[in-house]
Design goal:
Layout lengths: L1 H7 L2 E3 L2 E2 H4 L2 H38 L5 H26 L4 H18 L1 H16 L7 E4 L2 E8 L3 E6 L4 E5 H5 L3 E3 L5 E10 L5 H13 L11 E7 L4 E10 L3 H18 L17 H8 L1
Antiparallel strand pairs: 1-2, 3-4, 3-7, 4-5, 5-6, 8-10, 9-10
């Protein structure tokens, strides 16, 4: 009996002995804390889900907004609300959350130092999503990788190359390099250099180039095309030609015009020079004797 009394008087929780804990009052208090914690968690999950849906709905209702950004923000809001709910639950059981928050902060610092490379990709992904140097479907050139953007995540950017190869670029390399976005503006200026011979009729050559290019329906008359003699090379007179065209037509248009202008200049009788080299063989004494004979 004495041993049982000793056990009942042993302190086991918050300065209370076992005899104090088995009272109806204490059990009611614990049950109340459990019920309160359960309600807090349920409400926290409901509110977190509702808040995320509301944030995502902003991009769904406005097509000009980036859906990737608002999905990311929605997840941030959800996890923040759930984090506060967990802290409230701990408070209901009398746990001091100050030390827990400090421990989480220290652990976060240690994890951040250990994962600098991965976190730099995430940070760059956030910057890409926020400032939007490109979007899905844009044709870009990043660090020598050229292709169409297929996916933007927090860790990397997925590009389909010109040969339709999937290229995965870490976001840190994307954000830290020069980005050329060929789809940002609706129009682009195509540029060529066409050379004609020094004996060619320059007025005829200029008119032939102009008429050939402007006959294509893809060529824009406004802004006005630029066609002028730009350079006098060793064997040619070079015309610099600049014409505006839709960005979607640029690459095929530029290739088509090279062939069409070449064929038009041939048809007009305009000489297109190419490098030539004349070899002079020195005469020796035997050749001179043969000529004398």
């Amino acid at each position: 009996m004495e041993r049982l009394d000793s056990i009942m008087q042993t302190e086991i929780y918050d300065g209370k002995a076992l005899a104090d804990l088995v009272t109806l009052e204490f059990l009611a208090q614990v049950l109340g804390s459990v019920v309160a914690a359960a309600l807090i968690l349920i409400v926290g999950f409901l509110v977190a889900g509702w808040a995320k849906r509301r944030v995502v709905a902003i991009s769904d209702n406005h097509t000009r907004l980036d859906a990737t950004l608002f999905h990311f923000l929605g997840n941030l809001v959800r996890y923040a609300i759930l984090g506060f709910a967990v802290l409230f639950v701990l408070n209901t059981f009398g746990v001091k959350t100050t030390s827990i928050v400090a421990a989480i902060g220290a652990a976060g610092l240690a994890i951040g130092l250990a994962m600098q490379g991965a976190l730099s990709n995430v940070a760059a992904g956030v910057m890409i999503i926020l400032f939007r140097p490109f979007k899905l479907g844009d044709f870009i050139d990043v660090d020598g990788e050229m292709g169409t953007v297929k996916e933007i995540t927090l860790n990397n950017t997925v590009v389909a190359s010109l040969s339709n190869v999937k290229v995965i670029i870490p976001n840190a390399e994307v954000w830290g390099n020069t980005i050329s976005n060929y789809s940002e503006y609706p129009t682009r200026r195509a540029e060529w250099s066409f050379g004609v011979g020094y004996g060619a009729n320059l007025a005829l050559a200029e008119r032939t180039i102009h008429d050939t290019i402007m006959a294509d329906e893809r060529s824009m008359a406004t802004p006005e095309p630029f066609i002028q003699v730009n350079n006098l090379n060793d064997s040619s007179v070079d015309f610099l030609v600049r014409v505006w065209v839709s960005s979607a037509d640029y690459f095929q248009y530029q290739a088509d015009m090279k062939r069409k202008v070449k064929e038009a200049l041939d048809a007009a009788g305009v000489d297109i020079p190419f490098p030539t080299r004349t070899l002079v063989q020195p005469r020796n004494s035997q050749d001179e004797d043969l000529d004398a004979a």
